[in-house]
Amino acid sequence: MQEDRMSDMRGRRILTTLQEDGRLIVELAEESLPPPTGHDVVVRVEAAPINPSDLGLLFGPADLDNAEYGDGRIVATMPDGARRAMAARVGQAMPVGNEGAGTVVAAGEAADAQALLGKTIACVAGGMFAQYRTVDARSVIELPDNATAEQGASAFVNPLTALGFVETMRRDGHSAIVHTAAASNLGQMLLRITKEDGVPLVNIVRSPTQAAMLKDMGAEHVVDSSSDDFKAHLVAALKATGATLAFDAIGGGTLVGQILHAMEEVASEGQEYSRYGSNSRKQAYIYGSLDTGPTILNRSFGFSWSVGGWLLFPFLQSLDAAALEQLRARVRDNLTTTFASQYKARISLEDALKRDAVLTYNARRTGEKYLLLPNG
Q1: Is the pLDDT of residue 3 over 60?
Q2: DSSP codes, 13-45
Q3: Which of 3, 67, 129, 331 could bridge 159 with an S-S bond, Cβ 3.0-4.6 Å?
């Protein structure tokens, strides 16, 4: 039933503010949402995943071990270097939470907004770590009648990122993919997509347990970076797949360079020596920062290579309306199969700012995704 559109709706949300003195304040704050108009709808947020991109805004590299934890409030210290890099956000109380799902409880007068009243929808509107959120009805995914908000909460970022990897592969003229941190929720989705689409995939994981899990899911090429023979197994997987494109969630360290070196080793095998390396075009995209240290490249892979960043939203903006809708329809139609997410635990809005919970979900362990339940 529609809420009273003549009065404001009140709720709570999480805000993060970087102060000029370097203190980071994260707190639960009251907010008042005006009645929606036009195409806007108000969503009672029932589930929102805690993604790595959310944690970057929520806490960044702040010292959470030594922070002050109180009643719905955290005060932490931001390192000087990070504070200088984030100077543009100083003094701004910023809402957090890229995506989520819930029930439309109020709507503007536009027909598309009115049609969503009482419906369960998913959206990627930002500010979803809140009890209520006003969003544009034209930007949401209406979930199937049998789908829950929890099933739809992660319907945007991970699914569209995984689909984006495959589409980028095709656009760039590659035929296979290497993916790091492959045991993550995103990695599992990518595995299911590539199996459906017949795209060879090299899955790089960080433990034997993760390797076993992906093999149980049907992964053909799984390489454990913690093993002594990692390099040999990586080269073998690249030979088998012909992969010359990598998507890296780690960011820091030597892994990207190791992947490019292995690609070059495969490409150079049996070819006449050239001091410039092979002509095989090798591309690595960094899309995450599980390791916030420097990316180290020991240039042992010739000159035909590129390393760059990959972000979901610029990719989506590069698509025309028909291509974007095709991706969204695939997610909607396969929400509980190909694009299903598994969660380590569920956390209330209040508990999300308690020390034990913060230190647990901010550890960003591969395969351990947490779900926020803003309305309990």
Answers
A1: no
A2: EEEEEE-TTSEEEEEEEEEEEPPP-TTEEEEEE
A3: 331
